[in-house]
Amino acid sequence: MAMIDLEKMLDKVKVSQWALVDIDWDAPGAELITAEQWPKLRDFMIDLVWIEHVGARGFAAMAKGAPNETLRQLYTFFYAEEQRHANAEMALMKRWGMLEGDTLPEPSNNIRLAVAWMQNYADDMPYHVMGTVIPALEVALDGALCQFLLDTVDDPVCHAVFDKINDDESRHLGVGFTVMEMHGHSPQSIEAVRMMGRLLKPQVLLGLAVHFPLLNKMRDNVVKAGLPEEKLYAAMAKFEKIGGRTRNGRKNPLFRAISSHNKIMADRTQKLYHIPVDLMVKVTDMIPQWALPAKPSWVGDVTWKPTD
Fold first, then answer.
1. Mean pLDDT in order along the chain per 10 residues (308 residues)
2. Which of the listed residues 124, 125, 196, 199 has the most CB atoms within 10 Å of its CB?
3. In this structure, which long-range contacts are made by residues 217-223, counting pairs with CB atoms below 8 Å and at least 24 apart in sequence?
4. The model's pTM
5. Would you state the pLDDT for residue 164?
6. What pLDDT sits at residue 71?
């Protein structure tokens, strides 16, 4: 994946917009979801919808901190696209009889905490930090979670939806890896090294405490749902391969840190990491609903209805 022309990419994004009304939600194929698939697929889809919103909130923060107008516009489009992805995935859940009424099912405690952290602290994160974290999330979505659905679900409407989502994600990744490489050969790369120490602030440590167990739980959930572990490894390796394809990319210290973490997180044999993080998952699961942070205001805008 070569460095891209951001101006041309912005023009391409503008003409590539789509809406839920473009999909025939009543087309045949919903009956192809088997009774065995249904419960695991429902849990998977709930996680996926909420993770789209974690990504959306990241793009909103990046739009505020973007170094130029072109990137600001790109991230603003990407923010809207991630919301559209979540709504399209909810529409699939409605099609498959996984929603009661119009309300999005409750997320796991881990996702609830991650969403709250993004809502409260993402805007304060340095731009080049979010510019490295978000491509890692996008690779997981594009290379593992979305691909899992295409490999295991026969419903043609699901494939039509994810053809559009994957096209969007490919543009997100193109911009993301280009920005990561720009950081590798800019004076910011030196500042990023100095910044690593300053990142050890309470809100950042809280973010790690929230995101590490979230990643572990989602890793295990998607494997339980049927994703072969080797495909998970391949998705994590994709981030390292593309992000480190040039010397400038490899100079980005945050890229190196996230690449190392991704490999450890994907590999269940890394007991020194997984035992304490699994304990964090168990503790998080025990938090009562009343003690969790309030849901952000945008939750009420999440809808399966094809009106956007």
1. 82 95 95 92 87 88 93 95 92 92 80 88 84 80 75 93 92 88 57 54 80 88 79 77 66 78 89 95 92 75 67
2. 125
3. 217/108, 217/110, 217/281, 218/47, 218/51, 218/110, 219/265, 219/266, 221/43, 221/44, 221/47, 222/44, 222/144, 222/145, 222/148
4. 0.88
5. 94
6. 95
Alpha-carbon distances, residue 138 vs 156, 165, 171, 175, 189 (angstroms): 23, 11, 10, 11, 22
| pLDDT score at 294 | 80
Q: How far apart are CA 34 and CA 191, in angstroms?
A: 53
pLDDT at residue 30, as a whole number: 95
Q: Kindly report the CATH number assigned to the domain that includes residue 80.
A: 1.20.1260
Q: How many CB atoms lie within 10 A of CB 252?
A: 28
Can you say whether the dihedral through the CA atoms of 120, 283, 196, 268 is positive or negative?
Answer: negative
Q: How many domains does the chain have?
A: 1
Residue 301, in any domain of the structure: no
DSSP secondary structure letters along 269-290: T-HHHHHHHHHHHHHHHTS-GG
Establish if 19 belongs to a structural domain. no
Question: Given this model, what pLDDT does residue 95 score?
Answer: 95
Contact 218, 51 (CB under 8 A): yes
Greatest CA span in the chain, whole angstroms?
56
Domain boundaries, position 140: 35-296
Number of residues assigned to the chain: 308
Q: Which amino acid is at 151?
A: D
